[in-house]
Amino acid sequence: MEDINQYPVTLGENAPMVRFQNVTKRYGDLTVLNALNLEIAANEMVSIIGPSGSGKTTVLRMLMTLEEIDEGVIYVDGKPLTHMEKNGKLVRADKKHLRQGRGDIGMCFQHFNLFPHMTALENCIEAPIHVLGMKKGEAVDRAEELLGMVGLADKKDQHPIRLSGGQQQRVAIARALCMRPKVLLLDEVTSALDPEVIGEVLEVIRTLSSEHNLTILMVTHQMGFAKEISDRVCFFYGGEIAEQGTPDQIFGAPQNERTQQFLSAVLEAS
Amino acid sequence: MFDWKWDFTLQILPRLIEATGNTLMAAGIGYGIALIVGLVFTLAQKTPYRALTFIVRETVEFIRSTPLVLQIFFIFYVGPQFGIRLSPWVSGMIAIGLHYAAYLSEVYRGALDAVDKGQWEACVALNCSPRRTYFGIILPQAVPAALPGMGNYLVGIFKDTPMLSVIGVAELLHTANALGAETYRFLEPYTMVGLIFLAISLPTAAGLRIIEAWTRRKMGLTRED
Amino acid sequence: MGYIDFLSNHGGRLLDGAIITAEQTVMAILVALFLAVTMGLMRLSSNLLIRGAATVYIEIFRGTSLLVQLFWIFFVLPLFGITLDKFTAGFLTVGMNLGAYGAEVVRGAIISVPRGQYEAAIALNMSAYTRMRRIIFPQAIAIMLPAWGNLFIELLKGTALVALIAVTDLMFQAKQINSSTFLSVESFGTALVIYYVMARFIITPTMRRLEAVMSRHLVRN
Fold first, then answer.
1. CB pairs under 8 A, 24+ apart, for B86-95?
2. Which of A45, B167, B223, C165 has the fewest CB atoms within 10 Å of its CB?
3. Cβ distance of C122 and A179 shorter than 8 Å
4. Which chain A residues contact residue C126 at CB under 8 A?
5. Which ipTM did the prediction report?
6. B59 and chain C: CB distance < 8 Å anywhere?
7. Which CATH number fits domain B6-218: 3.40.1010.20, 1.10.150.120, 1.10.3720.10, 3.40.50.720?
């Protein structure tokens, strides 16, 4: 049993936007994340790469509170997410605390997960109205603005079934942004797309990272894109960060043997 | 008022147990008939004779869409109109057997359709005889798909036996009615009948689920161990 | 021309019975839907008491015979102080019986909604209530419709039993006509045909159209 009190109850003034401190996640006997330490600064664009099973997606899912933490603490914007304060000490977060913390995080999924029974516009205004309590008019304005930003203003009244994969993923991004998250998680958002539509989604992400006040954490297999757009790249292997650095460092001169193996295998395949 | 008489309950128990035997027999015979006739219905629909297929299909739909109790009355009373007297037991068994044969034929049909099309094609590629195809390859794979439905209808037929009381078959409900009329006490007879049904159907349903899981494992259709 | 005579003499009574049957069916459907949704959702609760209560209801009504339930509710319940008129006892019992089967249909449909929908709702920080009401349940409805089509036909057939507690429905009328005329084939046969028409030409097409409407926007797996 770890001593939860070794962790601070809040982080100080210059806290990073996201901090994973000694985070461990197990599924039965399998340790998927092993005492992970990771910090992400505000407005940073971080790409996470690595082979399957290395724990990359788990990092995102835990930050989105889709998975429970086994050991360690995750902080968002200086405050604990997975735990909460009680009498000056840290205890596991209850449902209420999780819901409060969750509001700062948004996520886009590999398989889009748009609501099929709603139009693109309705998908985007649903949560602002029912979760943030926004008035419908205000929510619609914001949604139309964001749908315009992703280039789908003319598709706002279409249902997902009528949209291509690339279009659906762009709607998903607009939907996440309508909730004004501080951190946006992108979980292999182009892996399920036909090659010819990948570009339109990457273009949207490019716009996001340059124009918006947003911290972005992206798990991806698009190496070229990651190299072009990231502030930092983390290579995951076996539940740990094997190597991290600037794109030039990681792609240009990888130090770790595993990083080298992975990158050469990926390059061979493309 | 609620005053349960235990001595009365013990008194009527022997008759209820005898009636339970009748109920189980009716369910068993009816189910046996249904198993076989159901197969006939299914196979008849797979023949190339369009007229036969159509007639059988419509008959099956008709039987499935209309109340069993009405079918029981029909078969029981129809005979005498043409001079044939069918006993309650015989007409009851015919009615229940036909009714559930219609249900089971749909289960069989669904199970056969559930077998991957590729299996048929593999048999053609290996030049298997129709007999070998059906009995060696297709039917064994259809069985696990059919078991849940077959199990459900076994329990269902058991629960439908009280309908036979309306034409005088001395099963559980008929006996409870008789006891109620004789003694003016309804609480114990009807409650005991309900409990007897629960006592038989719940373990049976649980047992069937175990058999289904065991069959799926034996045929290598689950991914466990 | 015997059958035409039969119809002109007795057809009216059979139709009166059919109307009662239709009323019983509609009322039973309402009862069954209400119970199925309530009990189905209760079965998904993390609270053991809530889940247990729903399980008890479902197992009792699925594990015993509808006719026995009918008799029990009509003859035994008065001993506990609850006396229902036969019309109400009829559709209430049929509804409660099929509601138990319906509860499993509802539960099955809800857990069939793709996991990704739950996760998207969580990512958008929806409360569990909003998630169920706005995202999961609407999709579950489209999934459960075919099974409900079958259940509605079972409901229709189940209402025939209320004739045995003297509700003057279609089967009751058929029995009466048979007792007085001994024309079993005509009376019971016509009743069978009327039930068939109600099931095959009213319920089934309606459900098919409903299914088509609800699945309009959903991707078929």
1. B88/B164, B88/B167, B88/B168, B88/B169, B89/B26, B89/B169, B91/B167, B92/B26, B92/B30, B92/B164, B92/B167, B92/B169, B93/B26, B93/B29, B93/B30, B93/B33, B94/B33, B95/B68, B95/B71
2. B223
3. no
4. 127, 130-131
5. 0.88
6. no
7. 1.10.3720.10
